[in-house]
Batch of 3 targets.
Target 1
Amino acid sequence: MKELTKDTETITQGFGRLGYVADEELATILFLMLRLGKPLLLEGHPGVGKTEVANVLASYLNTDVIRLQCYEGLDVNSAVYEWNYQKQLLSIKIQESSEKTEAEKEAHIFGEEFLLKRPLLQSITHPERAPVLLIDEIDRADEEFEAFLLELLSAFQISIPEMGTLRATHRPLVILTSNRTRELSDALKRRCLYHWVNFPDEEKEKRIVQKHLPDIEEQLLARVVGMVQAIRQKKLEKTPGIAETLDWARGLQALGYKDLSEEAIARSLGCLLKSAKDIERVKAEGVEGILVD
Amino acid sequence: MSERPHASSYSSLTEAVIGFAHLARKEGWIVGIQETKDALMAASYGTLDEQDTFKYALKAIFCTNREESERFEQLFGGFWGKRKGAIKSKMTYKNQSNIQRKSPGSLVWMGQGENKEEEKKEEGKNVSGANKIERLRQTDFSKIEEMDSALLEELALQLWKQMSLRMKRKLKASANQGRIDLRQTIRASIGYGGDPLDLRRKKRIPRRQRIVILLDVSGSMDKYSFFLLRFIWSLRAHFEQVEAFLFSTNLVRITDYLDSKDLGHTLALLTARAHNWSSGTKIGWCFQQFNEQYAKQVLSGSSTVIVLSDGLDTGEPELLAGELAKVKQRTRRLIWLNPLKGMQGYEPIAKGMSAALPEIDVFNSAHNLNSLLELENYLVLL
């Protein structure tokens, strides 16, 4: 672990080997996150590779990712822990005839074997090493949940009334992502390091595609990325992300194209654009039309 | 303004980092002791070797949103950059709290104390046969006397508070029978030897809806925006999920200003941001801006959009209709409140208004307190 987090250069290279192009800014922030032990908040448009950072970081450090997908109405029970009620009920029935006292019975059915660990509890009770805890799209969760999270992120302990307080065996590496559908509270932000993830520039996007599709034709690569970059400048209903670029490049490869033509675009545009209006508009303007302005 | 601080004027690195934190705080960043400490730690990890690395490190620690990230370059450059090239910050900090300032677009006098004083008084008094409060509730905002406006404001805040309280209660009462809560039921069953005699239920937490408000502050709305802005402020104070925008020839997001607990403070902040208010209206163009910049963020399937505007558009009606249709696609309900609708004999024949009508779910007036309070009925209908 020490070796892996020596400096930013090591991180950039390590991420590169795992197929993720990390620029110096991101590498610096990951370096700090590992050194300061602070959570990292990544914000940015959908499809710029926020979630991927957590996955790559985990494989870089050779540890697990524990993911908590947030949504409206997410409550503590589905994020932290739940009791296995069916098993508890059965156990109560079985014990009916036993000689145990009520207190013993209660202690039994609230034992660890009846506890269903949800992501947050899993992350602090990982037996071997610190996992990467990915809290995805935190902006979708309610403010109450955010407040709860705040508590977890500062103390790294969870209290379960029936069992007592569980302290983190290993402090998880926390990455939060947000699409910014609402502003997060200042208190939460202040706990975290912050990084705004932008769409990659042309050079970087080329490198990303090349990493994932090593055998792509130079000509096709340049044209596809150039086209996507131009399309992003347009005010579309849904701006394509990096995943879409990759899908499109793969699609074009699968169809056997070595260069971008009107026909190739018409056949494969569904990989890139996910709205009928956008597709119509791009088709109408054609390759040249888009690359010109 | 005095000479801006620079790294070279400090004797040690530690002091320079602290000095930089001070500067950042002064410029509006929220930088506490913890941040300064983290910055010093980061410096000690060897991030100093390259200026870029050090910049990125401080950026991650100090910034909390995209806007700050973007402004950070300048702050960093000014402090740590080469002395000669240091650009003086163009930001000026005048005293912005002077809300009595009378400049064009100043909110404080918007729609207040303007001409036609005589005429207003006449009409204001013509409402007869009711006590003062009842009369105020029915008086058109544009015809309120200056004397009464303070009273009306107080009354309004009170009523809006009641309204939001009532709404919360309605939501709670309508969800009385919830799902069975297994956790609590099992706990309770231990006392009966394991038989779940006592069923515990879980109350459904009411789904809070997000309200997005767009207020027209163009010249023609002048007389109303004064009160409507207060209305928005009190909505924000009682509902957690409110997003608010002002528009005339351009769209401005004001949600962050509404957080202040003090209405006067909010108005002062808004006054400072007012540029071309009380000028023409380009509703279509403003909605286009809204769709491009904010719609994807602030609108979800469960949100309600409220437009407060008279619909007197100087732009193309086709643009407005098209953009409204886009808004409509992303929301649950689109409500348009038009103060002119309170006038007798009003027909929505203005080009903009008639273009907008097909997309609107609820079209109502917003000229007096009672009409605003009616909004409650639409917000509760789930």
Target 2
Amino acid sequence: MTRQIRLGSVFNTLLKEYTIVIGIMVLVLITSIVEPRFMTSGNMINIMRQFGPLILVALGMTFVILAGFIDLSVTGQLFLVAVIVMKLIDPIGQIPAMLVGVAFGGLFGYFNSKVIIFSGALTQAEALFITYGLSTAYIGIGQMISNGKTMNMSIDLTSSYSMFQYVGLGFIGPFSISFVIFLVAIVILYFFQSKTYMGRSVMLTGGNKTAARIAGIPIYRSITIVYMICGIMTAIGAIVFMSRATTVTSAMSIGLETDVILAVVLGGTYLGGGRGSVLRTIIGALIVILISNCMNLLGITIFWQDITRGAILIIAIWLDAQKNN
Amino acid sequence: MDNKNNNIILSIQDVEKSFPGVKALDQVSIEIERGEVHGLVGENGAGKSTLMKILSGVLKKDAGTIIFDGAVVHHTSPVESQRMGMSIIYQELNLVHTMSVGENVFLGRFKEMGGMRGTHTKAKTLLDSIGANLDTYQLVDELSVSEKQMVEIAKALSFESKLIIMDEPSSSLTQDEMDKLIAVIKQLKEKGITIIYISHKLDEIFELCNRVTIMRDGHVIDTQLTTDITRNEMIAKMVGRTIENEFPERPKCDGEVLLEVKSLNTHKLKNVSFELRKGEILGFVGLVGAGRTEIVRAIFGADQVKGHEILIDGKVVKIKNPKDAMNAGLALVTEDRKQQGLVLSFTVEKNVSMASLDRLSKFGILNKSKEKDMAQRQVKGLNVKTPTILTKVSSLSGGNQQKVVLGGWLETGPRVLILDEPTRGIDVGAKYEIYLLMKEIAESGGAIILISSELPEVLNMSNRVLTVYEGRITGEFDPLKTTPDHIMRNALGMGEEEQNNDQAN
């Protein structure tokens, strides 16, 4: 009797913890049975390519959320960095343009954090509105620089963009370049989160800012660092993204913030801060990609895909709140 | 006319409750007589809260019978128990802060009261009947803790409760507010309302209660008339062993000046200056909100303050934030450990190491084995009851959580330890351990600033006491040479004259 109850409750907990993951596995299973194209190597490479930019931005976002904040400006940042890099390829060359782009990512993150710290309230809601506003501004600046036009590498550039072609299409062994970049990033970021003083400071800041500050933890530095990481990762994501698409347009990052937050929350990082891990986000990002891939293969229209994504985000946040109550 | 059965309003018979791995209540039987104030005491984890949760319908009992007012209770929800005439006032009061006093009293029943006007009129009547002079249109957010309690009591009365259970109502009240609460409880008693009064403060139990039930480890140890039991007997039954005294002998202090604070001014504080000597325990006495917490927060750099001067060993130190304060050898155990002292969702280990994190790192990399050693050292040294150092600190009892906070600060090797309400909501055993620790620190050349709303605690632990009233220091006393009354008068701002006389002598 007792044993049965215990097994039941374990099953219940598992079900609660992984409701969405299980649901999506079912979706993947159905797709792979119904749609033979799912299991082809072409589709797998496709999944790996889509995985690249999303996971890079999501890893950055994970830190912002771990610190108890949020960054909606990734949408604007990704576009603006892509525009800047595009504009710099001709004057300074491919690799310098990429490096300057990444530096700009860090700079935008730094700026975001300073605006939030300066606002003084230091809540997630505040950060949500501030970064939303900043995102709009970043898109505006990007539009201004690009004159509102789609920029195309093959048309607008006079110099070669071979490095971008390599990042977009190249492989090292069986892995696409974007996947290799992801592997390097995850090793560094996991080490940062779990083994360093600043990584722990970020977690403590997310867990309880007040207590962390009283204990001498540099909470302002933690906030700045997470936004800078998010900015840098978004910039790297922008370079990978534009390399694959070979065009830059403000449409490129529409809806990015939903997918990124979805990846973090589905992975199981607590939206309120302090609990979670960059490793979890890998699973979350994979799920997000699988959802859209399966829906594409099943011929579900883009409108229904958006509705589904929105619904999954709401359910994920709801379940997250249930779990933490 | 009253037969025996009729005289018992609540009969708890052989109630049992288990949680995974713990038997929280074991064959608990208590009979509460109609119209009495019945004290319920026991250390944290004794089972008081579980029992109350079963009575209110928040938890389900595993076995046993509960008879309330002649009827067997099978209910399962707090609303139902309230309808039967049983109300609980929790330690964390249950009010809507953005609504008015009147609206809170009759929350969700405005129509039955005849709209807003009726609601406010009836709320006023109820509040007046317990002698609480409150404006029913005022927002609850603006009330003090004790005023909020009055609103809760009025709410309980509005349900025509026959039994009101108060769960540690005094834990955040000052002496003055406590006196008011005592008066209200006596009034309720006169009205024939039965009260179960849960508290750690034994003075209150003796003052208020007719009878007292002592619980320990899920068992009822004894139920006695308060006139038939002594304080020490009660403590012995609570902790299961004899504690000779509630307070250890106070350490001697004749050291030189360690910390000097000069002209601390904020919008709330007026020209606060004082000295702290090596080996000294300095007590601050004052009402909640008098500025005691603000003084220590300002010294510690937790709030931004300018213009004051802090000297350590006679040398000026600049303290702009908590980190500076820690570097200067200060440590602050805040009044609210859950909000300001701990990261509740983190492990014991990570909470202990929090304040020492920079010393545990080299080139920005954490030394995990040192961190583990540190946590184990403090858990062992302070006798923290936790399954492992990887247990979440939220699952520990209040006393053990406080030890985790203390352990974290001890690891920073503080010279001045500031304790703001260090024993609030902590059981007798853990309290005594914290007192011993304070004594040990003082004797090894450190110094302690102690803020506490429990007068006996400050007076028995401190070498010297400062009274704080409306942001000013209104007096300095040797607790051995002054009566508690005299000190309280100064803490209430009524002792300036006497103080002048003292100084003249």
Target 3
Amino acid sequence: MTLIGLAIQNLLRKPFRTYALALAVAIAGGAVFSTATVMWGVERSLDRGFSKFGADLLVVPKGALVGMKTALLTGEPSTFYMDLSLADRLRTLKGIRQVTPQLFLTTAEGSHCIIGNAFLVGFDPHNDFTVLPWLTQKLPREFKLTDAIVGANNPYQLGNSVYFYGQYFTVYGKLDRTGIGLYDNAIFIQIEKAYELAENAKKFTDVAPLGFAKGQISALLVQLERTAPVNVVRFSISRYPEVKVISAGNIVTSVRQNLAALFTGTVFLSAVLIIANILMISAIFSTIINERKKELGLLRAIGARKQRIFQLVIVEASLLTAAGGVFGVMLGAVLMRVYRRTIGFHLESLNIPFLWPAWSDITLLALAAITLSIMVGIFGAMYPAVAASRVDPYEAIRAGE
Amino acid sequence: MFTVKELQKIYHFGTESIEALQNINFSVKRGEFVAIIGHSGSGKSTLLSVMGGLTRPTAGVVLIEDEDLWSKNDCGRARIRNNKVGFIFQFASLIPTLDCLGNVMLPCLFNPKGLQWANQEKAQQLLQIVGLADKIHAYPNELSGGQQRRVAIARALINNPILILADEPTGDLDEETEAEVMKLLLTNIRQHQATLIMVTHNLHLAQRADRVLQMKKGKLQ
């Protein structure tokens, strides 16, 4: 028999009360764990996506500012265009290391494309630094003009054929999941081929023409020299009146704002649940202490120090809330597993990129949620434990005699 | 030797003060059985509680083998209660979630040496001595009042105390069981050369004591 054994036996004395309390803690613990996991997933997506994104600045046509952010996050194309020659002009600016163009176009529904509204991106593989680094699977040969690279959310496999505007493309490669909607949902083709498709589209009478001409692009992705001050380069580019400049950091901030709006309620609810649990544990353990006053007095009489009585109550509450925390984490994990697709879809529909955290991170979050549950027990039982340790032993033993 | 010197206990209720113990002085030798008798409210139980280190006196000294109980901190008093004092209360005061063995071994849980295999053996021996060898794993609700009291006696003896403080230990028992419990208690006290101080209303029981102290309005007569 140990102090922990004694605490367990005390808890099992009234099983319904113990299970009900543990369940209440489990709900709070599960809510904290699930919220933290989803938030961590969004953060991971932002960190991973935008740190490997490679571009420090995005240069887009004036008017396409909001559309471009949406395009990057969800993969919805923007229909504003600018001249490709701007790329050469930007390359001459001080502080700029690389510039690469991208052209966004949607596919048409109907007989000229085999899929509905896919998001096609024309890119220049010769000076690209943002798409190819994500290429994890590819055919064992050079990337050809009639090849396409698909984002992670596309169902196509290497070697599959896809058909756009009367032209077949071979799936040459597939990108790793990035958490950036543009990259995960898009199909990348060479920019020259994109101009060819625009010409093809004009031949089809039942398809609306693509809204750009040869030599037009949707965005320029700019990588700066390592030491170049972002604001200075940004200012230099802003002198071109036809464009707007977005920094990758701005997009992260915008996502974080969306995130804050979405999670404020959830975080608030979790905080309320935790506080309610602390108060509930406190109230119920005060009742428990009252019920067991006589026994506590007896333990003091046979040699228990005040500190041991305090420990006994704290251990009892911690064991209960730890069990609740473990159950809550399991419950949260099962619910997230069941609704994993819905969670991802819901967040992406809110322009919030999302990647499930790594298992090691989920394990850490689970441990943190269980620790928090234990802390709920410790804080909740603190006052009753102090009261229990201060019980006058003889008065308590003789109570009711 | 157990000694009480100029013991005083005053309870304060708002502006009112009640002197529960007034200038109590006495000594008890090792192996002696002392009965304290008196009416309800005479201060017997308060005296027992102060002697056992459970209620702090307003003034005075309690010496257990030259150790001044009330000069110690909570930790020191708890150690003395655990090592040198055995309590037997009016009602059995067993822990309902522990079986007989667990209840008897309970004081060992609070012993600095911790629980040891020897404690379990000793607890089993004590349960055998008090006639409950076949009830080692029975829970308090499966025992009669007399059996519960025997478990409490075994518990009081587990750490070989030199002082046993008993507060109406047979108060709720029938005559036959009372005689049985007293016989058991006295046999063990004599065997271990422990001092027994028993608070009782029962004059018949008090007659069996080596010495009887009578309390009246907080004073020893």
